[in-house]
Amino acid sequence: MGQADNMTIASGTRGITLMERAGDHVARVASEMCSSQGRIAIVCGPGSNGGDGFVAARHLHQAGHAVDVLLLKDPAGLKGDAAIAFGQMGLPSQIVEPAELKENLSGCDLIIDALFGAGLDRPLEGNAAAFADTINKSGVPVLAVDLASGVNGSTGEAEGAAVQAVRSVTFFRCKPGHYLLPGRDLCGDVSCVDIGIPESVLHEIGPQTFVNEPTLWRDAWTVPGRAGHKYDRGHAVVFSGPMSSTGAARLAAGACLRAGAGLVTLASPPSAMMVNASHLTAVMLRSVEGLEGISDLLADKRLNSLLIGPGYGVSDDTSEAVSVLLNSECAIVLDADALTSHQNAPEALFTQIKGRKAPVVLTPHDGEFVRLFPDLVALDKLARARGAAARSGAIVLLKGADTVIASPDGRAAINSNAPPWLATAGSGDVLAGIICGLLAQKMPAFEAAAMAAWLHGAAGVEAGAGLIAEDLAPAMRPVIARLVEKP
Ligand SMILES: NC(=O)C1=CN([C@@H]2O[C@H](COP(=O)(O)OP(=O)(O)OC[C@H]3O[C@@H](n4cnc5c(N)ncnc54)[C@H](OP(=O)(O)O)[C@@H]3O)[C@@H](O)[C@H]2O)[C@@H](O)CC1
Ligand SMILES: Nc1ncnc2c1ncn2[C@@H]1O[C@H](COP(=O)(O)OP(=O)(O)O)[C@@H](O)[C@H]1O
Ligand SMILES: [K+]
User: CATH 3.40.1190.20 residue ranges in the chain?
Assistant: First the structure.
């Protein structure tokens, strides 16, 4: 944003003009949230975020609202555009001690949080933290300028105190902190408004972090052509666990087929053939025994996408099986036990991944992540996923309510459509199956993983409250139908 701001200013738009537009938008949203008689407290910090607050105060006063401008710091310390906006405000303001703030906020109908935005560079402490606390305890709805104060816009983290907003108004583009937790929850509903920064600045800035929406991958996904053949859509293999743990792989295989793989084979240990056979219809079944069995299976060059891990078991045998898969030319998804089985020697896995041409997607949840990348866990979520992708050479899909998909080339997508109902046994197996199904259709791996996370979230919304993992594959149908309709 700093770069976007500077480029816009360098091309002739004054900084105060940007601030004027930003504050105007904030005032408009505040007016929507508050009756025309409503009293609005505008709590302003020492930087440009506070500057936006001063502009909003002027507009709201002109619109007839009762406005209280409350300052964290002495306005003599304001600089640049914020100082100009303060000078142009023409309204009384007061420096408030934290102990007095409660009194100042009582009886107001809306609080505008203009304490800190993009310039936050450390956790809120002392007076700033006390302000955030008092605002949160006031029970008054909060509209945040740019970000809820205390949220780091680049990471979504809030290491100290943070304001809880119901809405935020941000400028030009949403920031990672609007999508990553806890920032997403603290910022509330986010409106992103145009303040006159031209789109063209993005060519030079070249952002590498994206919100996971269909525009990110829709062009990489093809729907079956009129004369299409099932083999055009690939043949995926999902590896089943032993007799007592076959369900995870079957869930994955069903989702893989539903994601559009032309054919899906479940590779089953001989001992589990009966239980698998009694539960499968469109998914095919093949008995595969040991490493030799896997090698024989993979001799069929029509197979092009593989998934191993769900319910497979944690053991050296599993890591050896993974190694055989990695020697093939297929795209591969490594999930669950296939990840944990490498906890003692992750580097060997990464070396093998980096040595192959076809892509690998790793789909760890936090617990699996720490086993493979213990030294990365202290980083923020974007940095964790990016660091893991760079180190492993794989696309890394780091699961959670704010799943991040990262590529070794530096791109990262943040998924935000997943409902909490997806936190249910087997839901991750379904996700791994969807990725495998999209890889079978030869989607590039980053796009396949991103689309899969989005489909999984959208299917969760479609299935709704009370869903279980079995509901997800059927719920993908209307979601896919809508994607086909909307090119
Ligand atoms: N970019 C754009 O296009 C546009 C941007 N605009 C707006 O500008 C905002 C960014 O403004 P900004 O850079 O001045 O930073 P801001 O968030 O006000 O905070 C910096 C101040 O806070 C302080 N400080 C920091 N952390 C602290 C802490 N934990 N605890 C205590 N103090 C702390 C730090 O001072 P320090 O104490 O470090 O000297 C500094 O004084 C952006 O969010 C948007 O609202 C719009 O006007 C439209 C155009
Ligand atoms: N609170 C949440 N909100 C949205 N999605 C979630 C939440 N918690 C987990 N998920 C998603 O649910 C899935 C769970 O996967 P995983 O942990 O592997 O479970 P399992 O092994 O039981 O399938 C992941 O896709 C994850 O991103
Ligand atoms: K703010």
Answer: 214-485
ipTM of the complex: 0.95
- Measured CA to CA, the distance from residue 359 to residue 307 in angstroms comes to 12
Kindly give, in sequence order, each residue whose CB lies less than 8 Å from that of residue 188, ignoring residues fewer than 6 positions away: 142, 144, 148, 164, 165, 166, 167, 168
Q: How far apart are CA 176 and CA 170, in angstroms?
A: 12
Q: Is 207 annotated as a binding residue?
A: no
Task: Locate all alpha helices (DSSP H) within 63-200, ordered by sequence.
Answer: 80-89, 98-105, 126-137, 183-187
Ligand 2 centroid vs 232 CA: distance in angstroms?
Answer: 31
Mutate to test the pocket of ligand 1, among 49, 73, 201 (most ligand atoms within 8 A of CB): 49
Looking at the domain covering 214-485, what would its CATH class be? alpha beta
48 lines ligand 1 (CB under 6 A): yes
d(CA 184, CA 189) in angstroms, rounded, equals 8
Which listed CATH number (3.40.50.10260, 3.30.565.10, 3.30.830.10, 3.30.1330.10) goes with 2-207? 3.40.50.10260
Q: What stretches of 48-124 show up as alpha helix (H) in DSSP?
A: 48-62, 80-89, 98-105
- Torsion region of 42: left, alpha or beta (phi above 0 gives left; psi -120 to 50 gives alpha): beta
Closest CA to 388 of 420, 342, 434, 419: 342
| CA 117 – ligand 1 centroid, Å | 5
How would you write the pLDDT of the chain (487 residues) with one tens digit per residue?
Answer: 999 999 999 999 999 999 999 999 999 999 999 998 899 999 999 999 999 999 999 999 999 999 999 999 999 999 999 999 999 999 999 999 999 999 999 999 999 999 999 999 999 999 999 999 999 999 999 999 999 999 999 999 999 999 999 999 999 999 999 999 999 999 999 999 999 999 999 999 999 999 999 999 999 999 998 888 888 899 999 999 999 999 999 999 999 999 999 999 999 999 999 999 999 999 999 999 999 999 999 999 999 999 999 999 999 999 999 999 999 999 999 999 999 999 999 999 999 999 999 999 999 999 999 999 999 999 999 999 999 999 999 999 999 999 999 999 999 999 999 999 999 999 999 999 999 999 999 999 999 999 999 999 999 999 999 999 999 999 999 999 999 997 6
Q: Which regions of the chain carry the CATH code 3.40.50.10260? A: 2-207
